[in-house]
């Protein structure tokens, strides 16, 4: 007997990225009985293994990045034609274009694109990707029935570059049973990091990328050390290891050797978010819905963010929002947070609780799953 609702997801790869993580959380937390299957153009990676371990069907074609094979497109067409899913949900530009067209030819009733970028710069985007985006904008009124985005800024951006279909914003969602404040986690994490309990620990969880503007926060820390003490800052993320010469040179330039810790990649986000007192995201451009902001708040950790993408909307009045590319203002906001925790424990506790409550009420995984179902099945 045929499954009542079947969704086939098409994505370029299942590596460690925001779209890939959202896809995985969406599937694994859908308790409706809906049947999910995933097609990935590239080979095995982080979320591929997670999905397979949970008995989710994942078909991989092991293509190289940026490459497509006509025989693969034929195989996807045959698969969709035979399976006749109720919905084909594609993720990001290349999958939107290729998967969307194949699904259209296969006469799938509901085709939904997913776009997540809120800003593109000439230097950060390959010519081939720009071409794909341009074609997607031209086909946006023809191929997809609906287009989902994860942020209001991403919706506005895509409208500005010619996307014609109605864009529907669905906030990212998170499992509140995996991200939550816990003193025992904080204690063990700080012990592991050799951070004393009386040290104010700032954290920035972000890959090494120009859009994250690590220079801005490092400069802000250099200003901060002139007016505050007994604090450290830990940097977590891909490329933020101790052998990053660019970052090491900035640390030397700003004399931050005794303040900055370079931790590198760490998949235990709950551990890091519980260990720190304040999360800072100093991005200068390119954010849509930065996961780390909501993840920090779910652990009861307030945030200082630059007003890029939907960061300000996520934080609301529970944290501090500053303009990008201004280290003086960023330093001042961090200092205000430190002062509040050190000198007004009650108000700091309220602030932490408000951050947690806001994130739980707005960014729980159940809400995300429900919103996707409304788009897919009406």
Query: End-to-end span in angstroms?
Result: 23 Å
SSE pattern: EHEHEHEHEHEHEHEHEHEHEHEHEHHH
What is the spatial order of strands in the main beta sheet? 3-2-1-4-5-6-7
As a percent range, the share of strand residues is: 15-25%
User: What's the total count of β strands?
Assistant: 13
> Mean pLDDT, as a whole number?
94
Low-confidence stretches: none
**Biggest sheet details:** 7 strands, parallel
Helix vs. strand class: alpha/beta
Cα gyration radius (Å): 22 Å
Question: Judging from the principal axes of the Cα atoms, what is the shape?
Answer: elongated
Helix fraction by DSSP (H/I, runs of at least 4):
40-55%
Tally of individual helices: 15
Describe the structure.
With 378 residues, the chain is of the alpha/beta class. Helix content is 44%, strand content 16%. It has helices at residues 18-28, 46-53, 70-83, 93-105, 127-139, 152-160, 183-193, 214-224, 245-254, 269-275, 291-298, 311-315, 327-343, 345-362, 365-377, and strands at 6-11, 35-40, 57-60, 87-91, 110-115, 146-149, 167-169, 200-205, 231-236, 260-264, 278-281, 303-306, 320-322. The strands form two sheets. It has a seven-stranded parallel sheet with strand order 3-2-1-4-5-6-7, sandwiched between helices. Helix 8 (214-224) crosses helix 13 (327-343). 42% of the residues are buried.
């Amino acid at each position: 007997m045929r499954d009542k609702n079947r969704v086939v997801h098409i994505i370029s790869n299942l590596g460690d990225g925001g779209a890939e993580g959202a896809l995985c959380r969406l599937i694994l937390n859908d308790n409706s009985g809906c049947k999910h299957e995933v097609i990935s153009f590239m080979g095995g990676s982080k979320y591929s293994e997670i999905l397979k371990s949970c008995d989710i069907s994942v078909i991989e074609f092991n293509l190289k990045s940026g490459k497509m094979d006509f025989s693969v497109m034929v195989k996807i067409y045959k698969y969709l034609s035979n399976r006749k899913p109720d919905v084909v949900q594609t993720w990001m530009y290349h999958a939107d274009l290729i998967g969307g067209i194949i699904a259209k030819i296969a006469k799938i009733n509901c085709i939904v694109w997913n776009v997540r970028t809120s800003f593109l710069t000439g230097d950060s985007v390959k010519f081939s990707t720009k071409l794909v985006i341009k074609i997607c904008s031209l086909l946006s009124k023809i191929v997809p029935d609906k287009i989902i985005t994860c942020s209001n800024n991403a919706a506005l951006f895509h409208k500005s570059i010619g996307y014609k279909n109605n864009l529907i914003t669905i906030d990212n969602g998170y499992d509140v049973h995996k991200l939550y404040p816990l003193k025992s986690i904080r204690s063990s994490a700080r012990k592991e990091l050799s951070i004393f309990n009386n040290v104010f620990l700032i954290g920035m969880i972000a890959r090494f990328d120009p859009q994250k503007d690590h220079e801005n926060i490092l400069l802000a820390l250099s200003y901060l050390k002139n007016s505050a003490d007994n604090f450290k800052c830990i940097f977590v993320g891909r490329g933020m290891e101790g052998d990053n010469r660019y970052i090491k040179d900035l640390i030397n330039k700003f004399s931050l050797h005794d303040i900055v810790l370079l931790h590198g990649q760490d998949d235990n986000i709950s551990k890091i978010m519980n260990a720190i007192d304040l999360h800072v995201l100093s991005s200068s451009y390119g954010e849509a819905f930065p996961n780390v902001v909501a993840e920090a708040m779910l652990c009861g950790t307030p945030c200082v963010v630059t007003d890029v993408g939907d960061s300000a909307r996520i934080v609301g009045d529970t944290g501090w929002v500053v303009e990008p590319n201004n280290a003086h203002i960023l330093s001042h906001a961090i200092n205000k947070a430190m002062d509040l925790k050190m000198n007004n424990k009650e108000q700091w506790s309220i602030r932490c609780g408000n951050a947690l409550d806001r994130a739980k009420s707005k960014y729980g995984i159940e809400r995300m799953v429900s919103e996707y179902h409304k788009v897919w099945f009406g």
